[in-house]
Amino acid sequence: MPKQKTHKGIAKRVKTTANGKLKHHKGFHSHILTKKSGNRKRGLRKAKLLSKSYQKRYKKLLHG
Fold first, then answer.
1. Domains of the chain
2. How far is CA 13 from CA 1, 9, 23, 46, 55, in A?
3. pLDDT per position as a tens digit, 37-50
4. Exposure class string for 33-52: b at 16+ Cβ within 10 A, else e
5. Could you tell me where the DSSP H helices lie in 1-64?
6. What whole-number distance in Å separates Cα of residue 21 and Cα of residue 48?
7. Angstrom distance (rounded) from CA 36 to CA 31
8. pTM of the predicted structure, to 2 decimals
9. What per-residue confidence (pLDDT) applies to 64?
């Protein structure tokens, strides 16, 4: 049985925390920012944790 390869698309978008959770940056923060409120843009700055269902799916793609 060959080894499972890391999914490079996911690996570039997701980082693993010390406790093994996955964090990512939200989209919609690169352009067309004038119509978005400051509150909304501030919320897009920080990295967020992925939901549990996505964490399970993405960990399979990352670690095989």
1. 8-63 (4.10.410.60)
2. 28, 7, 9, 14, 13
3. 999 999 999 999 99
4. eeeeeeeeeeeeeeeeebee
5. 8-13, 38-45, 52-63
6. 10
7. 10
8. 0.78
9. 66
